[in-house]
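Async update (no meeting this week)

Hi team, since we skipped the sync, here's where things stand on the single-chain job. The sequence we agreed to prioritize is pasted below, unchanged from the tracker. I ran it this morning and attached the output directly underneath so nobody has to dig for it. Comments welcome in thread, and please keep replies under the output.
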Amino acid sequence: MPDTPRHDPAALVAFATALCNAAGLDTDKAGAVARTLVESDLLGHVTHGLALLPKYLDDLAAGTMRKEGGPEVVRDLGACVTWNGRRLPGAWLVHRALDLALERVGTYGTVTIAIGDSHHIGCLAAYLTRATDAGCMLVLNSSAPGAKAVAPHGARQAVLSPDPVAAGFPTGGDPVMLDVSASITTINMANTLLRQGRRYPADWLQDTDGNPSNDPAVLSAGGSLLPAGGMDHGQKGYAWALMNEALTQGLSGYGRADEPKGQTASVLLQLIDPNAFAGIDAFTRQTGHTAAACRAATPRPGVGKVRLPGESGLAHRRDAVAQGVRLAPGILAALEGPAGKLGVPMPQALS
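Output:
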C-alpha cells in the first residue's frame, strides 16, 4: 500500500472507539473492538482490520451483535472455564478471557477458556503479544458454526468454516506468531479480491460441480473454499478443521448442531506458563535455538531469506507505530457513511 496516506494508530483507535460508542457499545467494549481491529492493520492483516468495522456497525444496528452485559458462566473449574458469549463483541470477550487467564495462569500453569456464541473475533494474531510479553504461550482456536464455506476433502459442497488457529510463544528475541487457517484462503480474502476485480494466483476454490477455480466469484455462486492442501493433499486441512471444530464447538457446547444464524464464533483460548514446566529459560533456550536455526537455513533459489511466522508482521507493526499506518485503499471511504450518520469526525492523515 505505498500510495496510501499514513495515519496515527492512536487516532485510528480513537476514531473506531467513537464509532462503536456511538453505535451503542460502552467504552470498554468499544475500546477492545477498536484496538483489536487497528492492531490487525498494524500487523498487516488488512482483511481483518478496520475493513471489518462497517459490518460490525451494521450488526450492532441490527441487534445481531449484542451490546449489553457480559458472558454467561457455564462452568468454572479454575483452570477450565466455559462461557456462553451471548453474541457479544468477540474482541471484548477474547480480551476479557485473556485477562482472566493471565490472572490465573500463575496458579494453574495452564488456563483454558472455551467461549460459545461469540460474535466475530477478528484477526487471531492481534491477541498474541499480550501473552508473549508476559512470557507465556497462547494458543487460540476459532470456528464459525454458522458458516459453511469450506468443502470436506473429496466433497463438492461446503460444510465447514475456514477454522483458523493462532499461536504465539517467546524465543528470547521476537516471539514466533502464527495465524493460519485450515482452508487455503478465507472468506474475507475472497470478498476483498471480488471487490477489487482480481483472481487468486492459483486454484484455491472449487465451483458447485467440484471443478477447481481461482475466481472468488464462485464462492457467492455456491462454490467453496478448498481445505489446506487443495485437491492434492486436502485431507490435511480437512482433518485439521474437524479437530478445530471439536476444540471450539465441542468444548464450548455451542456449534453446528444448534443451527446458529448470523455471524457467530466458537472459541478456545489456552494460555501456558513455561514456568509451570521446565521454566522460561529452558523454554526460550529451545525455542530460540530452533528459531535461529530456521533463520540460518540456506534459502532456496528466489528466496531472499528464511523468515519465521510473524516476523514480517512485527516489522510492519514497528514501522506503522513509528511512521503511521497505511490503510488499504477504500477502508476509510467505507466508513465515511457510518461516521456521518453517527456524527463522528473522520481521522486526518499525517502530514
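Quick observations from my side:
The chain has twelve helices and twelve strands.
The chain has a mean pLDDT of 96.
Reply here if anything looks off.
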